[in-house]
Amino acid sequence: MPNVDLDEETIERLDGLRVDDESYDEVINELINIYQAEELTLFRGSDEDY
User: Is the entire prediction scored with pTM above 0.90?
Assistant: First the structure.
């Protein structure tokens, strides 16, 4: 797995999202899943016929 360097502000923002001592990997995976779900919703929404 590649290493990613984060600045202090990003780490603070991730810390604000962590629940019950979640790892950074868990938080980032959750954010990616949310992003993908929203992207899929937007994609499907654009398929509607008008």
Answer: no
- Residues contacting 14, CB < 8 A, separation 6+: 6, 24, 27, 28
Contacts of residue 28, defined as CB under 8 A and 6 or more positions apart, other chains included, come to 14
Question: How many domains is the chain built from?
Answer: 1
Residue 15 inside a domain? The answer is yes
Q: Is residue 29 part of a domain?
A: yes
Residue 5: the pLDDT is: 92
Q: What is the largest CA-CA distance in the chain?
A: 47
